[in-house]
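Tutorial, part two.
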Amino acid sequence: MHFTKMHGAGNDYIYLNAFEEPLPGDLPELARRMSDRHVGIGGDGLVLIGPSDRADARMRMFNADGSEAEMCGNAIRCVGKLLYERAYVSQPRARIETASGVLEVQLEVFDGVVRRATVDMGQPILDGPRIPTTLPGNPVVDVPLLVDGAALRVTCVSMGNPHCVTFVEQLSDYEVLGWGPKIEVDPHFPRRVNAEFVQVLSPREVRMRVWERGTGETLACGTGAAAVCVAGVLAGFTERRIVAHLPGGDLELDWADDDHVYQTGPAVEVFSGEWLPEAATSVAPR
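Running the prediction step on this input gives:
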């Protein structure tokens, strides 16, 4: 089975072309095995690109633990790159169906190669039950959340998938690796949640780290950065246009006047290869 490894700001996924490749029935198990960084290809998860009757292509994504997620901002930029460079679209733009709806990607092309892309991430969802969260407020802004004995102040946003944003004085492993996994499974979030930790550098610039639902800490999270853009405005920390510095690189965010969040960032192809049948059965994932 042919695959392509790609990343957006270090958020790396394995991509399968379902236009051409027959796929096995157990996709969660395939995602777990391929994503394993010791006995698999290694990645934050698995992305499938296939036909859509609503758009140029349909994207499905599975986290490294096999759970299926609604959307990924970094992955969808890479999907747009693959569609253009493999000639599935003829213009430097693509409409891509996701579990969060059809999103449009504008591609920046240099000498036939897509280097960056801008994604219309859509309108943020701020209604608590739709995020979903049982925390109080509409919107859920700067509300208390008790985590491991610490009283955090959090703001919740959905960008098609749920996010819980905490603004901190200084980023450290203590918050991300200590609080992150506990927030992910906190009972206030019935479908689990992505946890963002944000240090505000200026009204137009933040530094952030993300504990992603189903994967753990990643080098970047596109929907997380979009959620931070919205949360920063709602909580009074930032303007509507910001640059977010993540461990894997920078993302540009704009919560525009049309209420949509636009995100610009890199899309990089790393390598392609063949997933051999024996790789699927030789070693069970730990």
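The mean pLDDT is 95. In part three we will examine how such features are distributed along the chain.
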